[in-house]
Amino acid sequence: MQAQTFETRVADIKRRAHGRWTDLLRSLGVDEKILNKRNQPCPLCGGHDRFQYTDKYGEGNYHCRGCGPGGGLKLLQGVQGWDFMTVLQCLEEYVGSMTPMPTDARVRSTETTAGRMQKLAMRIWQEARPVTRGDDVDRYLRQRGLALVDYPDALRCHPALGYYEKTAAGNSRKVAEYPAMLACIQGGDGHLVTLHRTYLDNGHKVQQRAAKKVLSSGINGAAVRLVEATDELAIAEGIETALAIHLATGKPVWAALNAGNVEKLWLPDTVRRICIYADNDANADYDGQACAFALARRLKKAQHKTGARQVEVFVPRQAGCDWADVWRSRSEHLRTAA
Ligand SMILES: [Zn+2]
Question: Per residue in 213-235, pLDDT tens?
């Protein structure tokens, strides 16, 4: 069988995708909001209302007053941070290519590990559902005193996620399946970097095993955007801590997932008031406090570029505590007092 040339692959995918772009973009992880055909910030170049998705010619068309017009292929590259070959391969998997690609061509078009991990993350994310009352994630958060009426879009419930362990030979082997809370970790430009997984068992974190895992390493300043930032944003390490802060203060909140990433966190320029809720690691190595203050210092020192910002750091009084612990003991106190 003759290998398709690159040009015929592109032409083929354009023909097959014609008129189906909105569905395709949605299936490949482009946020519904980007596709709502209203003026909004450009997912590729920012701004306030310069971007509009129109699908005018059935090619996933959009127009941006900043970076110009484009179609679904370009939009997918920009939003997901994928290179053109990755986009082409994803589309071919979804709509089917004209002739199957010979294996050696697949091998030749080498994908980066990051690209492969991102596709895996996307597939797991698509398998999961928004969190609803009574599902495993709702039961888990409820048990932690963190039930919400509406759960963030950045969290999903996976009904049965494979749990892998490394064998002595260094290979990954699936040893179980559990329901899981998935959290979408977004980079500065809004694309899915990877997923955070909390494996659950009957409304609790799994016991005897590492319950929390990031799918791939190197999140490098990306965050779980639980509540979209306004001109104000609260920052916490853990997802549960971040939800506790949102419940207690009503502030928009992002979770950085670990102390080291708090320090590196990417923040939008539009945020003017930042409250960093540190974990109190005084019983360990003071990582929580150190990284919170390192972020505060970075933000203050960058003010000549960003303009003046109000930055505050809050640390729970008790060693070994985070703000979720504080919220829980306060709620328990209120319950017994009632
Ligand atoms: Zn733009």
Answer: 887 767 889 999 999 999 999 99
Whose CA is closest to 281, among 327, 333, 241, 246?
Answer: 241
pLDDT, tens digit, for every residue of 111-151?
Answer: 556 677 788 888 899 999 999 999 999 999 999 999 999 99
Q: How far away, in angstroms, is 85 Cα from ligand 1 center?
A: 22
The domains of the chain are located at: 6-111, 136-337
Architecture of domain 6-111: Alpha-Beta Complex (3.90)
pTM over 0.70: no
Query: What spacing in Å lies between the alpha carbon of 44 and ligand 1's midpoint?
Result: 5
Ligand 1: centre distance to CA 32 (Å): 17
CA of 71 to the centre of ligand 1 (A): 12
